[in-house]
Amino acid sequence: MMDLNEDEANAIDKFVNEKSLISPVITAQNLNSINSCPDQQMYRARIQFLFQVDSYVQNEMSEINEEAREVMIDMIHDAILFTADNTFPYAKSIVFLTIYITFLQQAIIQSHYEPEKLYRQYERILLKHSVERPPHSSGIFDLPDVKLIHDFFINSYFRNVKLIQNCLSKRHIMSFQSITPVSIPSQTLPALAEMEMEVDHSNLPEEKLEIPVEEVKPPNSSRKESGRTGSLHARNVAPTPGQSPLSSQRDSEQKSNQAEPAAGTAPSQLEAEDRGPEVPIDILRETLFKMHEKFVQEFDEKEHLLIGKIKEIEIKANDRQITTPKKAVRSGRK
């Protein structure tokens, strides 16, 4: 490619805009500035800026993937070298680069790997720019140019379409964040306390309602003490006139014996009152019945498992008895 002045660049841009069926991605003046770069760093920087490479490698968060950007610059660099090696003029180079960038966009945008669809579109566009047949085609490329372009697309683009999609296409990233929920603290239950259960006596039979109360006999010590108090009382009581002291002592002993059962019944009555609430016999029967059913069910399950294992052992033993005669017959034949 030769150096251009401003008039020549404007003429080339006008020709490309009239003949090309795709809007060009770069002007002749900008392409000339890329070719005239003194060093590689500036060369890659101009490709990045003039071809707007960053717009192809941004994700949904507007973050630029630097590795994908370098890959995109290398691919555009290969296309520019192809035009320089084959001495394409500026008009053909601009149209070729426009077609190449367009199909890079198609590969990036596509959500599925469809190389046949891309190839049919490529053939249609290349044919429109190589055959001069108005109004839907223009004769920019000759037959030798078409062969060179076709080989370049096959070797550098269509063989790597899947790799281009994996490197440059945007991916949907699902990010999850765990949030600690705000919870109300649970109320602490009070400590357990004694509770008196009210039993409905109307549902219970009459036999269960009658609870025998045994009489509590006073201990021996109380009897001794009562005897002592009785004797002291007999001594202290003076006999009445006309009554012997023995008869008066007998009367005092009889009075003490009559007061003794009255004093003995008081503890038994108190003990009967402090026995606490009656036991709910129906609830106990129900729980015992449930425990019995559970025990019977577990016993049946274990019995079935044991019977099954015994049958398996019997079957294995029968199989061994059947297989052993065959081995004996074979050894006899040998």
- Given the structure, what is the number of helices? 12
Beta-strand percent range: under 5%
Helical fraction: 55-70%
The end-to-end span amounts to 92 Å
Q: Give average pLDDT, whole number.
A: 76
By helix and strand content, what is the structural category? Answer: mainly alpha
Q: How is the biggest beta sheet arranged?
A: none
N to C succession of SSEs: HHHHHHHHHHHH
- Quaternary: single chain
Unreliable runs: none
Number of strands: 0
Radius of gyration: 57 Å
> What sort of overall outline do the alpha carbons produce when their principal axes are compared?
elongated
Summarize the structure.
The chain has twelve helices and no strands. The protein is an all-alpha fold.
Protein described:
Among the domains are: 6-168, no CATH class; 283-334. The chain has 334 residues and is mainly alpha-helical. The chain is elongated. It has twelve helices and no strands. Helix 2 (28-35) packs antiparallel against helix 3 (40-50), helix 4 packs antiparallel against helix 5 (90-109) and helix 5 (90-109) runs antiparallel to helix 6 (115-128).
